[in-house]
Design brief:
Length: 169
Amino acid sequence: MTDDLDLAVLLLNSVDLLEDPPDRMAHDLVWWRRALERNGHPELAAAQRDDDLPMLQSLRATIRTIFECVDADEARAVLNVALLYAEAVVQVGPDGLTVSGDLRARLLFAVALHAAEHGVGRLGICASDPCRCAYVDRTRAGTRRYCCTLCNDRAAARAYRRRRSETGS
Ligand SMILES: [Zn+2]
């Protein structure tokens, strides 16, 4: 079971430049429903309507902008406008803040909450070219740069080859 922030990352990574075609949500919600099911959200998967596709695509673009932002003020401004449009209603419950509303409100709220608590620097885009997948940096030191172990290993192998060719050995 993944939380709403993980779902936001999942939505972002419906575009994966290493897949063919890269955008698995260009035409329909087949991939998205399956991804929700795989991640322990069968009810949410069943609740997705085909009409939601344009909303999800625009939500994806908005959240990606926030993950790509290096400027915290800019990220906050984008988030605040998006939260207004999503009509996210935040309430205080026994376990902290909760948001009521549709998926758009939930995911934006999860991103906003994390950005407010840990800074937007913890929301990143994979540095392993050509991958542009998103990740949440949950390391203590905030040193994560890649979306997955595969990208990490690929980047390390590239750096190793580069060093070898530079030294001519
Ligand atoms: Zn990656």
